[in-house]
Structures are given as C-alpha cells and as structure tokens.
Amino acid sequence: MAAADGGRSAAQTVVLVLLLGVFAVVVGISGRDMLDLTRQFTTRQDLETLRTLVLLYRTRHGALPGDDPRGVAGGEAAAEVTGVRGNGRWDGPALDLARPERSEAVAAWADLARAGLWQPDEDRTAAFAPVPHNRFGGLTLFADGLMGLGPALCLTSVPAADALRLDARMDDGDPATGALRAGLPDDAETAAGAAAVNRQLRTGILPSDGRRAVVLCLDLAGG
C-alpha cells in the first residue's frame, strides 16, 4: 500500500481501537470479547482496503494484478501461468510453497507492491510464504473459483464464530451466499493432504464449535 494510505489506515485503526476501548468500558465487555471485536473490525477494514486496491489496479491497468500481461511481475511466472495471463482470472494454485512463481494469485502481491499500491509489512508477512498474515494468524490470499466465487480475497484460520459475525456485518449473514462466503475444506481432500486454499470448500457448512478455523472469502469480481 502506498505510504500515505498506510499512514492514514494506521491512524484510523488507532482511533478505532481507542473508541472500542471506551465502548467496552461503558458496556462492560470482557477482555476476550474486546479482542474478538477489535479483530473483526480491523479485519473488515483490511478486506475493504485490499478490495479497493485491486479495483484501483484493475481500473488503471485494465487487468487483475498478477494476471496483467504487462504487469510488473509478468516476467516472473512459469510458462504454464504466463500462457493464460490477461483472461480475468487468477490461474494456478492459490499458494504453492515449493514454486510460488506458478501462481498468478501470488504474483498479484508483487504487482500491487511495485505499482505503489501495497507495501509489505514485515511484521505481518509469513516467513514461509510470499503473502501476508491476517489478524487471526492465518494467511491472506488471492484465489479464484472457491465456493462459487470468481476472483476473491481469502483469509485462512478464521474462527467460525468470527466468520459469521463478519458476514452479518459486511454481507447477507449467510456464509453460503452473497459476496462474503465461508467454508470448510472437504474432508476427503483434507485427508489427502491438499492445502486448504487449493481444494474445494464446503460452502456454508460451518462447524458448531465457533473456535474451529474456516476459510473466509470476499468476492472481488463485482468491484
């Protein structure tokens, strides 16, 4: 993210946390509930900011970051990915730790950064993958084709209870429909060892245990 945008976002986050703190004192919210509420608000801000950056890149360059044939990261992808650049989708796996250059979704971060729209935060960038962490300790990923969505922004390791609350605040309250969807990886594919963001998800089938992690995805195609 551009430096000015980053500073403005940080200032807004500080103000938000302070306001939430005052609210918590007034209504008597517990420390744990306060932490959950803060993470939900900041996660919503992250999702909306990144959606705006993708839309801005697409408006300026006429393509999705990572899928842009003329993109600044265009020369980094392997042949099986470059052959389909410019088709309006993120081709390749959402994340390939062994060969991240195979993924247009991973290249999207490089396009955003080199276009001056996004600045990696060392404190929130995963040491083992070229993508940022999210507020819940999971990964923030671009993906395509999950849960009936096209290009989407996905968060892993989101507690089911938080996913439901975010859906209620940002969308239609139903994790199986709308622009914001959540789901669990298919059990059979989980047993086979496939990465959560690279396999089919059972949309809207969330665990009864609200602490169990799910994948949350925000549709970017409608931007």
Task: Write a short abstract of this structure.
The protein has helices spanning 3-27, 31-61, 79-82, 104-114, 160-170, 187-191; strands at residues 140-144, 151-159, 180-185, 201-203, 213-219. With 223 residues, it is an alpha+beta fold. It has a five-stranded antiparallel β-sheet with strand order 1-2-5-3-4.
Describe the structure.
This protein has 223 residues and is α+β, with helices and mostly antiparallel strands. It has a single domain (3-219), classed as TcpA-like pilin, CATH 3.30.1690. It contains six helices and five strands; from the N terminus they run ααααββαβαββ. Strands 1-2-5-3-4 form a five-stranded antiparallel β-sheet. A hairpin with a 6-residue loop joins β1 and β2. The protein is globular, with a radius of gyration of 17 Å. The model is unreliable at 74-80 and 187-195 (pLDDT under 50).
List keywords for this structure.
223 residues, five-stranded antiparallel β-sheet, alpha+beta, TcpA-like pilin, 6 helices
Q: Tell me, what's the shape? A: globular
Mean pLDDT: 77
CATH level-two architecture: 2-Layer Sandwich
* Helix segment tally: 6
Domains counted in the coordinates: how many? 1
First and last CA, distance = 18 Å
Q: What would the CATH topology be?
A: TcpA-like pilin
Look at the structure and give the CATH class: Alpha Beta
Quaternary: single chain
Tell me the helix content. 25-40%
Beta-strand percentage range: 5-15%
For the biggest sheet, the summary is: 5 strands, antiparallel
Q: Report the uncertain regions.
A: 74-80, 187-195
In spatial order, strands of the major sheet run 1-2-5-3-4
- Class of secondary structure makeup: alpha+beta
Radius of gyration: 17 Å
The SSE string, one letter per element, is HHHHEEHEHEE
Number of strands: 5
